[in-house]
Write a structure and sequence with these properties.
alpha/beta, 7 strands, globular
Protein backbone atom coordinates (compact mmCIF):
# COMPACT_ATOMS: atom_id res chain seq x y z
CA UNK A 1 0.00 0.00 0.00
CA UNK A 2 1.68 3.15 -1.25
CA UNK A 3 -0.57 6.19 -1.31
CA UNK A 4 0.21 9.76 -2.35
CA UNK A 5 -2.23 12.51 -1.31
CA UNK A 6 -1.98 16.07 -2.59
CA UNK A 7 -4.30 19.06 -2.49
CA UNK A 8 -4.80 22.50 -1.06
CA UNK A 9 -3.96 23.63 2.43
CA UNK A 10 -6.40 22.55 5.17
CA UNK A 11 -8.50 20.35 2.89
CA UNK A 12 -8.42 17.15 4.98
CA UNK A 13 -5.36 15.44 3.46
CA UNK A 14 -3.78 14.54 6.80
CA UNK A 15 -6.97 13.11 8.27
CA UNK A 16 -7.64 11.04 5.16
CA UNK A 17 -4.05 9.79 5.12
CA UNK A 18 -4.26 8.74 8.75
CA UNK A 19 -7.53 6.90 8.15
CA UNK A 20 -6.04 5.11 5.14
CA UNK A 21 -2.97 4.11 7.16
CA UNK A 22 -5.30 2.63 9.76
CA UNK A 23 -6.97 0.38 7.17
CA UNK A 24 -3.73 -1.55 6.81
CA UNK A 25 -3.05 -4.33 9.28
CA UNK A 26 0.71 -3.72 9.33
CA UNK A 27 2.29 -2.75 12.63
CA UNK A 28 3.79 -0.54 13.92
CA UNK A 29 2.21 2.61 12.54
CA UNK A 30 4.47 5.64 12.33
CA UNK A 31 3.29 9.21 11.98
CA UNK A 32 6.25 11.20 10.67
CA UNK A 33 5.68 14.88 11.43
CA UNK A 34 7.85 17.24 9.40
CA UNK A 35 6.39 20.61 10.36
CA UNK A 36 8.49 23.06 12.33
CA UNK A 37 6.04 25.49 13.92
CA UNK A 38 6.55 29.10 12.94
CA UNK A 39 3.65 30.73 14.75
CA UNK A 40 0.67 30.12 17.05
CA UNK A 41 -1.49 28.86 14.18
CA UNK A 42 1.12 26.18 13.39
CA UNK A 43 1.31 25.21 17.06
CA UNK A 44 -2.48 24.88 17.23
CA UNK A 45 -2.50 22.73 14.08
CA UNK A 46 0.17 20.42 15.52
CA UNK A 47 -1.79 20.05 18.76
CA UNK A 48 -4.99 19.32 16.79
CA UNK A 49 -3.20 16.67 14.69
CA UNK A 50 -1.77 15.02 17.83
CA UNK A 51 -5.24 14.95 19.42
CA UNK A 52 -6.75 13.42 16.28
CA UNK A 53 -4.36 10.48 16.34
CA UNK A 54 -4.09 10.04 20.12
CA UNK A 55 -6.19 6.86 20.19
CA UNK A 56 -5.06 5.57 16.81
CA UNK A 57 -1.88 3.85 18.01
CA UNK A 58 0.57 5.86 15.91
CA UNK A 59 4.16 6.22 17.01
CA UNK A 60 4.91 9.88 16.34
CA UNK A 61 8.35 10.74 15.02
CA UNK A 62 9.25 14.42 14.75
CA UNK A 63 11.48 14.46 11.68
CA UNK A 64 11.59 17.98 10.20
CA UNK A 65 14.75 17.16 8.19
CA UNK A 66 16.78 14.17 6.99
CA UNK A 67 13.94 11.72 6.30
CA UNK A 68 16.48 9.18 5.07
CA UNK A 69 17.14 8.45 8.76
CA UNK A 70 13.68 6.84 8.93
CA UNK A 71 15.15 3.75 7.29
CA UNK A 72 17.01 3.15 10.57
CA UNK A 73 14.22 4.36 12.88
CA UNK A 74 11.18 2.50 11.51
CA UNK A 75 10.36 -1.18 11.14
CA UNK A 76 10.07 -1.86 7.38
CA UNK A 77 7.06 -4.12 8.06
CA UNK A 78 5.10 -1.18 9.48
CA UNK A 79 3.14 1.69 7.97
CA UNK A 80 4.72 5.13 7.56
CA UNK A 81 2.51 8.23 7.31
CA UNK A 82 4.76 11.08 6.10
CA UNK A 83 3.20 14.50 6.64
CA UNK A 84 4.34 16.47 4.63
CA UNK A 85 6.73 16.82 1.71
CA UNK A 86 5.85 20.51 1.60
CA UNK A 87 7.13 21.25 5.11
CA UNK A 88 10.06 18.86 4.75
CA UNK A 89 11.35 20.59 1.63
CA UNK A 90 10.93 24.03 3.21
CA UNK A 91 12.88 22.88 6.29
CA UNK A 92 15.69 21.48 4.15
CA UNK A 93 15.85 24.45 1.77
CA UNK A 94 15.37 27.38 4.16
CA UNK A 95 17.43 26.62 7.26
CA UNK A 96 16.74 28.18 10.66
CA UNK A 97 20.20 29.80 10.46
CA UNK A 98 19.02 31.87 7.49
CA UNK A 99 21.07 29.84 5.02
CA UNK A 100 19.33 28.75 1.82
CA UNK A 101 20.18 25.37 0.28
CA UNK A 102 19.21 25.59 -3.38
CA UNK A 103 20.01 21.87 -3.87
CA UNK A 104 17.74 20.69 -1.04
CA UNK A 105 15.22 19.26 -3.50
CA UNK A 106 17.80 16.82 -4.83
CA UNK A 107 18.66 15.64 -1.31
CA UNK A 108 14.99 15.13 -0.41
CA UNK A 109 14.47 13.23 -3.68
CA UNK A 110 17.30 10.83 -2.80
CA UNK A 111 15.94 10.32 0.71
CA UNK A 112 12.34 9.89 -0.49
CA UNK A 113 13.54 7.30 -3.01
CA UNK A 114 15.21 5.46 -0.10
CA UNK A 115 11.93 5.41 1.81
CA UNK A 116 9.96 4.23 -1.20
CA UNK A 117 12.40 1.36 -1.69
CA UNK A 118 12.43 0.39 2.00
CA UNK A 119 8.76 0.70 3.00
CA UNK A 120 6.00 -1.17 1.21
CA UNK A 121 3.35 0.63 3.27
CA UNK A 122 3.61 4.39 3.10
CA UNK A 123 1.19 7.32 2.90
CA UNK A 124 2.74 10.56 1.66
CA UNK A 125 1.08 13.96 2.06
CA UNK A 126 1.95 17.06 0.03
CA UNK A 127 0.40 20.43 -0.82
CA UNK A 128 -0.54 21.38 -4.36
CA UNK A 129 1.01 24.84 -4.78
CA UNK A 130 1.67 25.22 -8.50
CA UNK A 131 -1.68 26.03 -10.09
CA UNK A 132 -1.12 29.75 -10.69
CA UNK A 133 0.74 31.28 -13.61
CA UNK A 134 2.44 34.05 -11.72
CA UNK A 135 6.23 34.15 -11.91
CA UNK A 136 7.89 34.26 -8.52
CA UNK A 137 11.44 35.16 -7.48
CA UNK A 138 14.11 32.52 -8.12
CA UNK A 139 14.09 30.93 -4.64
CA UNK A 140 10.31 30.56 -4.63
CA UNK A 141 10.35 29.06 -8.15
CA UNK A 142 13.16 26.71 -7.11
CA UNK A 143 11.08 25.57 -4.14
CA UNK A 144 7.94 25.09 -6.27
CA UNK A 145 9.88 23.20 -8.98
CA UNK A 146 11.55 21.00 -6.37
CA UNK A 147 8.22 20.20 -4.70
CA UNK A 148 6.67 19.36 -8.08
CA UNK A 149 9.55 16.95 -8.77
CA UNK A 150 9.06 15.33 -5.34
CA UNK A 151 5.34 14.98 -5.98
CA UNK A 152 5.96 13.36 -9.38
CA UNK A 153 8.43 10.94 -7.78
CA UNK A 154 5.90 9.98 -5.11
CA UNK A 155 3.08 9.62 -7.65
CA UNK A 156 5.23 7.39 -9.87
CA UNK A 157 5.98 4.98 -7.02
CA UNK A 158 2.55 4.92 -5.38
CA UNK A 159 -0.33 2.64 -6.34
CA UNK A 160 -2.91 5.25 -5.31
CA UNK A 161 -2.70 8.98 -6.10
CA UNK A 162 -5.37 11.26 -4.65
CA UNK A 163 -6.12 14.96 -4.89
CA UNK A 164 -8.16 16.31 -1.96
CA UNK A 165 -10.34 19.35 -2.56
CA UNK A 166 -12.95 20.62 -0.10
CA UNK A 167 -12.67 17.39 1.87
CA UNK A 168 -13.37 15.14 -1.12
CA UNK A 169 -10.69 12.84 -2.56
CA UNK A 170 -10.42 12.54 -6.34
CA UNK A 171 -8.42 9.49 -7.44
CA UNK A 172 -5.96 10.12 -10.28
CA UNK A 173 -4.43 6.66 -10.05
CA UNK A 174 -5.56 3.45 -8.36
CA UNK A 175 -9.23 4.38 -8.02
CA UNK A 176 -10.42 0.80 -7.46
CA UNK A 177 -7.77 0.20 -4.79
CA UNK A 178 -8.69 3.48 -3.11
CA UNK A 179 -12.37 2.50 -3.06
CA UNK A 180 -11.46 -0.81 -1.39
CA UNK A 181 -9.57 1.12 1.32
CA UNK A 182 -12.52 3.51 1.71
CA UNK A 183 -14.92 0.60 2.22
CA UNK A 184 -12.74 -0.61 5.13
CA UNK A 185 -12.95 2.87 6.68
CA UNK A 186 -16.77 2.92 6.71
Amino acid sequence: MRIFISGGCKQGKSSLGQQLALTHRAWPRYYVATMQPGDEEDEARIIRHREERRDWEFITLEQPRHIGELVNLCDPAGVVHLDSLTALLANEMFLASGEVREDAGEQVQRELTQLLHNFANIVIISDYIYSDTRLFPFLTENYRRSLAELDRLAARHCQVVLEVTAGYAYPHKGGELYRSFRSKME
